Amino acid sequence: MEKGEGPSLKKINKYACACSIVASMISIIFGYDTGVMSGAMIFVKKEFHISDVKTEVLAGILNLCALIGSLSAGRTSDYVGRRYTIVIASILFFLGSVVMGYGPNYTILLLGRCIAGVGVGFALMIAPVYSAEVSSPSTRGFLSSLPEIGISTGILLGYLIGWRIMLGLAAIPSVFLGIGILRMPESPRWLIMKGRLREGKEIMHKVSNSPEEAEFRLREVKRNLGMDENCDDEVVKISDSVKKQDEGVWKELLLKPTKSLQRILLAGIGIHFFEHATGIEAVILYSHRIFAKAGVHDHQHQILATCGVGLTKFSFIVLSTILIDRVGRRKLVLTSVSGMVLALTGLGTFLTLAEQSGGKLVWTLVLSIITTYSYVAFFNVGLAPVTWVYTAEIFPLRYRGLGVGIGVAVNRLMNATVSMTFLSMMSAMTIAGVFFMFAGISVIALLFFYFFLPETKGKSLEEMEALFTKSKDSKNVRKEVQIGNH
């Protein structure tokens, strides 16, 4: 594999790409629910006569309930496999969508959001993990970022289409996804972890670009699991000692982690924390409030400006899939967050001027919209996709399900915190003050990413632990990673 080279059409395995696209459909459904609810906020508040507090609860309850799904999904995916975990998420989305579509009152709508929220927890954990495990190192960034494209597509569709019937329509793709994923292969790494070597080998050859790459990936997975690299049996019995080790992953990862695991866990939790602590959910869910404060008072114009948020998000997520394996995760996220700091500072400044003028200055209105779109663009070109790609690839195989599940739980907790407190914070410290706060948090995020996130571009999943091992023996490995070698 050539040094520092990004994906090309020749290097993207079509079978692996198809698997990742199908798995990413679940993210489209999740994004769709988010987008529909964002557009629906204006009408739900009027139809059900609810307060700002109830509006915040409705916005955030999906992510709060996602904690249950994300913390359950890791162990579930290790026991039943990656495919069946996606099926479980599809069923939950189906049930939640039906209940939301029915939604005759606030309570039923809230219940539907809760059910769908558990599905969100499963989906956000499993989609990037499945994509990462079927992808080769050269295209893993591209394929693992497909779920984020799915989310952006769903949000854009949700902005463009009405809310009540559209909430229920999300049930239809859930059915097709549940059926479609059963035609996709199981993760080869999961099969090998369970001792099913023949099946794992067959699928690894299908999702690799050459027989040589497939054999190389197989040897690395076996070595990572403590198996004989030359073992070619169809089925290998997993010893009781290995099973007991698997049962102790919670203790090993959280209570007695090695130094490298500590750094991996810090990086994984940190990037998920800052993805939403920097305020993106406030813009996605409450963009109509932002534009109203800037001086857009007509509801139709607010919805039109909000559609611009969705279009910007989608466009820059697509751009990120081209850049993530070419530029690398580290450079992309540092550039992304630097731009977010500038955009958030500008947004806070222009909203302050807009409020002081009573929304009568056209230039502050225009610049408020531009800086809002700029923030969304910078977020989605780097931090949004890198968060999911990075955490899906840095955890060693036996800790991957649990590690990513914990990261997603933190992600959803911060998402819920922002979405359920934004209106209250806006009342307490003005909308401009809230965005100045997000700018300050983004500065802290930038420092965290600079010091704690090594480059992972071009490395196999089995090499990741060495990147986080600070010793003389690993200096050469880390140096290779920084220049994108494989």
Automatic annotation (TrEMBL):
Q: What residue stretch is flagged as signal peptide? A: none
Entries under Gene3D superfamilies matching the protein = MFS general substrate transporter like domains
A Pfam cross-reference name: Sugar_tr
**Where, per UniProt, does this protein localize?**
Membrane
Q: Where is the Major facilitator superfamily (MFS) profile domain?
A: 19-457
MF-aspect GO terms: symporter activity
Q: Which residues cross the membrane?
A: 12-32, 86-104, 110-130, 167-184, 264-291, 303-325, 332-353, 365-390, 402-423, 429-453
Q: Which family does this protein fall into?
A: Belongs to the major facilitator superfamily. Phosphate:H(+) symporter (TC 2.A.1.9) family.
Q: Does the keyword Nucleotide-binding apply?
A: no
- At the top level, the lineage of the source is Eukaryota
Q: How does it sit in the membrane?
A: Multi-pass membrane protein
What are the record keywords, sorted? Answer: Membrane, Sugar transport, Symport, Transmembrane, Transmembrane helix, Transport
Protein name according to UniProt: Major facilitator superfamily (MFS) profile domain-containing protein
Q: Give the GO cellular component terms, alphabetically.
A: membrane
Question: What organism is the protein native to?
Answer: Solanum pinnatisectum
